[in-house]
Amino acid sequence: MLHTSFYLNSQLLDPAASDSTLRRVLKECADKYSYASQALQDAAQDLANEAYDYASMHIIAASDYPNVCHNLFKGNPGLVYPPELARREEGLKHICDVALGIINNLINW
Description:
Layout: H1 2-13, H2 20-48, H3 52-74, H4 83-107
């Protein structure tokens, strides 16, 4: 997620990203992926403390942040959701689904 935040920030440096709306959306998306990264770090700490409910909550939050980014693109006609960002969003959701499955097994153990 942190790498995705870096990726989005690097897109801001691209001369093709001169449109102010695109720049705003990229910045907001970078922030959302940064929050997702923090939520996953918090979940890891929760797991270390065996606070499985809190870990689940943080992972669900991490999984939802990319939706906000996707919706920012959809809400701005003329902006195209970058395929690379879509790939990263799917990857994060997959990671979160796996983590939630593991936590559910720990809760039921």
